[in-house]
Amino acid sequence: MNHWWTRRLQVGLLGIAIILIAMWGCGRERVNPIDSQYGGEGSVALNSPGNVQARGGIGHITITWSANTEAELTGYRVMRYTDPAQTVAEATFATVQTTYVDSPLVAEQTYVYRVQAVGTNNEESERSLYASATVSADQSPPGAPSDLIVSLDEANFQRVLISWTAPTRDSNSNELTGLASGLL
Fold first, then answer.
1. Residue 134: which of 63, 64, 54 has the closest Cα?
2. pTM value?
3. Quick check: 164 and 44 in contact, CB under 8 A?
4. pLDDT 10s digit of each residue in the chain, 184 long?
5. Phi/psi at 14 (nearest 5 deg)?
6. Are the C-beta atoms of residues 161 and 42 closer than 8 Å to each other?
7. Between the CA of residue 180 and those of 57, 123, 141, 168, 177, what are the distances in Å?
8. Strand, helix or coil at 55?
């Protein structure tokens, strides 16, 4: 028994099914009309690290920045340049901290840095603004060692034992800088 309304119902249901299948399977990104920052499922928008600062020291530069607060954040990428016009960093370092110490570096050389946040699926934020600093040269020699003791080794009379107390200040009585070790 074929009624006209049965046929209309079948055509209507078929039309609705086609529309639903097209919406579900078209593969295009969905946009949330309420939140324009929402880019679809799985999309993460990481903020660029802010307040990036670089401070030069003897043989090193310390780079600091403000922490990102996104839940997807897994760490940061610090990029070093010798010229801000470079598009590719000469060195890249990964860290989970908001401070990075770059060393050893050439004294009196200026380095430029940018920082980028990295997310759980390797998402990347925009790169930060540039921050630069110059590596300081150590102009002050260390103070003299003290308490120098020279003695003959009693177990082996062909050896001489030497001991001393390493300096704790520079020769100008300021904070000790640039001393790598107290080894002879």
1. 54
2. 0.61
3. no
4. 556 556 665 656 555 656 655 555 555 444 444 444 444 455 568 999 999 999 999 889 999 999 999 999 999 999 999 988 888 999 999 999 999 999 999 999 999 999 999 999 889 999 999 999 999 988 888 888 889 898 888 888 789 889 998 888 888 887 777 665 444 3
5. -60, -40
6. no
7. 14, 39, 12, 12, 9
8. strand
Tokens of 61: 């530069």
User: For residue 173, what are its two tokens?
Assistant: 């009585």
Residues in the chain: 184
Query: Token pair of 82, please?
Result: 């010798």
142 token code pair: 């260390």
The amino acid at residue 57 is G
Place of tokens 């940018």: 114
